[in-house]
């Protein structure tokens, strides 16, 4: 049996209603040199039967059956079984558009410096009922270059996990998904970026990212907001140690209770705060746990301090970035957004 160029890995658990459509979208790809490694993670619905049917129809679909161990175990089992030079991820409730595998592999072929590529994705849910998710998709679709992905990695997940394709060497060097009380996909991305993996995206819609109520990221505590902040803080602290010329001192933009709670996670890593900054006159002048809340207009000039915007609301976040840029502060040199 010849080795395929691409292995598409799909963890499957009780996805009998959706995995057939996902497989159909892969069989409709414009390139044929791929295999699908579908790991049935101990499903109790019709998943096994659907997978067996498709494996019988097309030899490129390989099914691995295991006891239920969770998505991390299933994803790593799929990666360990995959034979391709390039490894792609897909979820069993998403759809690959016809040019996905061709376009992503072409980008990896064309630029040896790239270790992982994503793509623009289409939001497959209800924009009214899932407005936050839809806005996240719109935001991540603006991050296409290695620089934009690197410098926005601490805002949110800059490359959706079901859209990734990467070189096998990245897995060999930096390892696969880790299990724990954190989002394993965000951890993998941050770990690989920290390890020097260069990432970019195809500037084309190549995946429909569906948002069903049963999506794991909506129902498992490892994907709640606080879990994201815990794991990003670990990596952000190490990034600051390497990139903040004023280490360990930083200036925190945002002084609300929730903002402080999330920023204060940095204190456990030895980071110190010069001040919190805000525009609310009711907060300015207060001292919280020994740290003063100052007017935003008093932030340090370029080169005189390092700022971290920690306000998460979309409108406020954009306003803060515009303010910092208007004062001459440069992304990555004078500030890094973390919310």
From TrEMBL:
Species in which this protein is naturally found: Pseudodesulfovibrio piezophilus (strain DSM 21447 / JCM 15486 / C1TLV30)
Keyword Nucleus part of the UniProt annotation: no
GO molecular function: glycosyltransferase activity
Protein name: Glycosyl transferase family 2
Keywords: Glycosyltransferase, Transferase
Family under the similarity heading: Belongs to the glycosyltransferase 2 family.
Signal sequence range: none
Gene3D superfamilies: Spore Coat Polysaccharide Biosynthesis Protein SpsA, Chain A
Residue stretches making up the Glycosyltransferase 2-like domain: 7-170
CDD domains with a match to the protein in the record: Glyco_tranf_GTA_type
Keyword Lyase attributed: no
Top-level taxon in the UniProt lineage: Bacteria
């Amino acid at each position: 049996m010849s080795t395929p160029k691409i292995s598409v890995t799909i963890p499957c658990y009780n996805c009998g209603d959706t995995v057939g459509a996902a497989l159909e979208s892969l069989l409709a790809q414009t390139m044929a040199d791929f295999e699908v490694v579908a790991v049935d993670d101990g499903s109790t619905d019709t998943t096994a039967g659907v997978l067996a049917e498709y494996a019988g129809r097309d030899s490129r679909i390989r099914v691995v059956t295991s006891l239920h161990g969770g998505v991390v175990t299933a994803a790593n089992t799929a990666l360990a079984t995959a034979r391709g030079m390039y490894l792609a991820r897909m979820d069993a409730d998403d759809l690959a558009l016809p040019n996905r595998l061709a376009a992503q592999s072409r980008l990896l072929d064309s630029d040896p410096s790239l270790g992982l590529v994503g793509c623009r994705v289409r939001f497959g849910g209800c924009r009214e009922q899932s407005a936050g998710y839809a806005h996240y998709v719109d935001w991540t679709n603006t991050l296409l270059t290695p620089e934009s992905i690197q410098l926005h990695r601490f805002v949110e997940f800059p490359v959706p996990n079901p859209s990734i394709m990467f070189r096998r060497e990245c897995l060999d060097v930096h390892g696969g998904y880790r299990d724990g009380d954190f989002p394993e996909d965000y951890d993998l991305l941050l770990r690989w970026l920290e390890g020097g993996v260069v990432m970019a995206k195809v500037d084309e819609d190549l995946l429909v990212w569906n948002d069903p109520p049963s999506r794991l990221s909506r129902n498992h505590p490892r994907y709640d907001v606080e879990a994201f902040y815990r794991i990003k803080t670990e990596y952000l602290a190490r990034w600051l140690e390497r990139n903040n010329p004023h280490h360990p001192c930083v200036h925190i933009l945002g002084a609300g209770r929730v903002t402080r709670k999330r920023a204060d996670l940095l204190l456990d890593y030895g980071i110190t705060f010069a001040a919190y900054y805000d525009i609310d006159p009711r907060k300015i002048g207060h001292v919280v746990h020994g740290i003063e809340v100052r007017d935003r207009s008093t932030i340090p000039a370029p080169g005189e301090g390092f700022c971290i915007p920690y306000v998460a609301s979309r409108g406020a976040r954009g306003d803060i970035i515009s303010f910092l840029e208007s004062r001459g502060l440069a992304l990555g040199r004078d500030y890094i957004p973390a919310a």
